[in-house]
Design brief:
Number of strands of chain A: 14
Radius of gyration of chain A: 26 Å
Order of helices and strands of chain A: EHHHHEHEHEHEEHEHEHEHEEHEEE
Distance between the termini of chain A: 43 Å
CATH class of the largest domain in chain A: Alpha Beta
Shape of chain A: elongated
CATH topology of the largest domain in chain A: Rossmann fold
Oligomer: homodimer
CATH superfamily of the largest domain in chain A: Response regulator
Number of domains of chain A: 3
Strand content of chain A: 15-25%
Structural class of chain A: alpha/beta
Chain lengths: 362, 362
DNA sequence: GTGAAAGCGCTAACAT
DNA sequence: ATGTTAGCGCTTTCAC
């Protein structure tokens, strides 16, 4: 894309002359209360003629309500905070976009913060958001099992995103990691593979991940031995390293299930450099369903997460009408997006997305 | 990545019992002013013993200052807004991350909003941010020549990002589009290409883009005829369409300069499907310097934008110390990241990033 | 249908 | 060094 930055001549944030409710009231010849009634469409009715006068005054004066004052009075800022590890990561940027949409639909603005895989920064972000009087926080912790104590001490409604814990006393919505891994591995098995590796991402907290369980279950259920587990970061670079390690494996598997699409992309490069073709020599399935996976060569078969749906449920659980229901754990199913990297032949070179099956609940 | 969402038992935003400055004051046996002095480290000095008492009270009571009240009093929310077309686009998600970092470093929180290529939504976002008393807005408009009138009527300090206009009376910081295109095309020419196509993205506003100029200039300066221009969206899909059109070109060029990395990724797929190899049959250079371009196969030579530097300058221009300087136009140079797709042989398969040259100012 | 006024939590003069 | 207090702009109860 492009780039240029332009700025208004600065006058300092506070020197902009605020038009207040009072100015409008005076101009329209009414009281400040009436202006409020008009602006908020309540709680009292206003005569049509009066309302017209007020609206005209608002327009003429360029009045805009002061959200800070409103927030102070109401104790709610109509604002929520999002804490993610890294907005440059396609999975999280998509999630952030979906959360922003869902929040905006409910009239909430979204503070975005990155914790960059850094627990201390995550805490700082949480505190900063709490201080800013957000009405709630959606936290995608760098820890698979997030620090609940910290959250509680922040004393703020929160939704944990991207975690595999059933935190006591908390609602939860998430994806069925184990189930997703299962359908991926089962699909690989249906292609005739019997030696299937797992490329597993390592979390900051180094906790156990459901994808590992699902991979193992699928193998066991099919009476197959476990292939090697290669651990590395969830990133492209991590996948690249994992791919190189894979190439050095002694009894080299013929298939790999990778725990993220980015990792799979990295593996693709390592295999390509090693002269190993996908899917002819080695089949590969990723996890996430990111847009990038659709355009790799070969296109990447992947386990899709219902990002938008999850974002919507998370936001609604935080600030929606259903606010007062009891804690609830929502686990979303995944689905397999079949493309080329698994060995299936897709109509054209990989335009994508034949749906395979819903994941069984684990 | 993973996913699960967990939520605190809701009590409604306002029912959280606010601990106020007054509670702290009473508990510590001091006045509210002293609490302020301690919290803000000024403007008055406080005796060490008193300060200790206050800090202890703050800790014990779990006091957190109310940002809304502070914002109301001070007329500044220590908050800025970002308006981008699409946070799912890697270029913008990287930009957003960089802006967030730069803002956080200065103590500002960041509202993120997406306009989704929709001008009406962009305006709505602008108004919503203005109403929220942000101290400034960084706007990456869907229009190449953004609507200055709208911005002015919003009456809020603003920085335009990602635009090619020298808006009168506004500061500007941006990338040298024409210069970037030039170094890309010149590099292609140095590989011996004489018939070089341009894959040009189309903006919402359909305005003229400096990359087209740079491409033309480089060709003209080298005494070469202009190759075909293929217009499509800046996206992967757009690139894919462009690639298919390219394959049907009569006097088919041997090189393509694409106006975005995503477009180049799409072109890569189309060419691959058409049995045309990159760089052997056709050389390709992208624009942006996104991480994704490093992992395509072949890895993508691309014109890098100094995203982080631009974000920092933008934020600082908005809210930094230099706030009161006169309007200024900042144009950043680009540099060429040489990898495989242009025909250069890079040490390993494409680990990346030999720097070529700084762009001359256009 | 409209208005007066209290008060949300905070900052910073202005007292002491 | 510490305390008192006005007031930021808004919502809403309570009067009229």
């Amino acid at each position: 894309m492009t780039s240029i930055v332009t700025m208004t001549p600065l006058e300092g944030p506070s020197s902009r002359t605020q038009v207040t409710r009072k100015d409008v009231a005076r101009y329209a010849g009414v009281s400040t209360a009436v202006v409020s009634y008009v602006v908020n469409d309540g709680p009292k009715k206003v005569a049509p003629a009066t309302e017209a006068k007020v609206r005209e005054a608002i327009r003429l004066l360029g009045y805009r309500p002061n959200a800070a004052a409103r927030a102070l009075k109401l104790g709610s800022s109509k604002t929520i905070g999002l804490i993610i590890p890294d907005n440059s990561n396609p999975f999280f940027s998509l999630l952030a976009h979906a959360v922003e949409d869902a929040a905006a639909a409910l009239g909430y603005a979204l503070f975005m913060t990155n914790s960059d895989g850094n627990l201390a920064k995550e805490k700082r972000n949480l505190r900063s958001l709490a201080a800013r009087q957000v009405d709630g926080v959606i936290l995608s912790s760098v820890l698979l099992y997030p620090d609940l104590a910290e959250l509680e001490s922040a004393d703020i409604p929160a939704v944990l995103l991207n975690h595999a814990t059933d935190a006591a006393g908390f609602n939860s919505v998430g994806v069925d990691l184990a189930g997703g891994a299962r359908i991926a591995v089962e699909h690989l098995i249906s292609h005739g593979h019997t030696n299937i590796a797992l490329a597993m991402g390592t979390n900051t907290g180094n906790d156990f991940d459901g994808r590992e369980l699902g991979w193992r279950q699928a193998l066991t259920d099919a009476g197959l031995a476990e292939g090697p587990i290669i651990r590395s970061y969830f990133t492209r670079d991590g996948g690249y390293e994992a791919g190189k390690k894979f190439l050095r494996t002694v009894n080299r598997p013929t298939a790999i299930f990778a725990s993220s699409d980015m990792q799979a992309i990295g593996i693709l490069r390592a295999l390509s450099e090693g002269g190993v073709s996908v899917p002819e020599d080695v089949a590969l399935i990723g996890f996430d369903g990111s847009a990038e996976a659709e355009y790799s060569i070969p296109s990447l078969t992947t386990v899709e997460q219902p990002t938008r749906a999850m974002a919507e449920v998370a936001v609604r659980a935080l600030v929606g009408a259903s606010s007062d229901t009891e804690p609830e754990q929502r686990i979303f199913p995944t689905r397999l997006l079949i493309r080329r990297s698994c060995g299936c032949s897709v109509s054209n070179g990989g335009d994508s997305t034949a749906v395979h099956s819903l994941s069984p609940l684990s």
